[in-house]
Amino acid sequence: MPTAIDAAPLALIAGADPAGAAALRAALGAQGIRSVACRTADVALAGIDFHRPTITLVQPSAEDGVWSVVRAARAAGSLAVVVNASGDAVTSSLADAAGVDDTILDASPEHVAARVAALVRRSAGRASSASVLRQRDLLLDIGAHEVRVAGRRVPVTARQFALLRALLEARGATLTREQLAARITGADDELPSDAAIELHVSRLRRRLGDTHTAPRYIEAVYGVGYRAAPVGSDAPPVSEGEAARVLDALPDAVLVLDDALRVRSANRAAELLLDRTRDELDGAVCSALLDCRDQDGRAIGTARCLGRVVLGGACDARDVRAVVRVPEGHLPVKFSHVRVDLPDGTRRLAITFRPEGPADNGRTI
Prior knowledge:
Strand content: 15-25%
Distance between the termini: 59 Å
Shape: flat
Number of helices: 14
Number of strands: 18
Structural class: alpha+beta
Helix content: 25-40%
Oligomer: single chain
């Protein structure tokens, strides 16, 4: 029989300085939450494995491994929260891409502790392994009754939520229309027809941005029902020539990077934006090429690199405001990062740039 202390929720604090960690631990204690503090990412990773915390608080720092702590916390069933004291937009985008449960922008230990306590209360009574269900960059939060795709909230009806939950909980097994009907129908209600189920699924897929020809989340099994689309069931590969023609038809600049964040391909719009030929772009290191900065002019280094987080995580990042280097100076852009898993097991990162204003002529902002 666990004691009251054993039963109390446990928070693991990763990346805070000693003084900040002490203040936060005191504030958490006032909320009835035990805590342990880990100064480095390596210690935090070991701490997650050893303590199995209820919630993990990550304070972004210059350390490269900070986002691996978020992924480890999620994998261990811990709630993952990023404390973004500066309110930096890039850090918030990184947190969304890493799939955190919440981002707290206030630096006050008391405010952080209150938010943590509220999160823990909302999660109470839920099985940690089933509180959040994921399929690629799709996230279904059972307790919050919320669906997200690539960090973006997707409004769904109660029946659509129940259908999606049933499919994700089935872990790839095919559910018949009758089984799905039972999941969305009350005890005293008449079961909906097969046609009604097909209509509900069709509308759900449309809201998720899914297609019949390339199902990313929900796949129809002819004559039987539906299942969560297998990871390898994306659209069939196209030839390099076809891919190049599609990329060149896009109005926005696109760079495709490999795992080492080196340019593997670019479209015509990227050539024009960066004033370099594809041969010159080929193999270029992304950080040296773009010199990315946030809106306050601070360099986005290794630990804050959105590309690294998206490649290592489950979510894409859309419409992030930043500043990149172009021949005329530094240009404000909105850029999106999308991870692509190839059939041979390798990964690619597609970055799309949409200029937001004139370049700052030669002046570093």
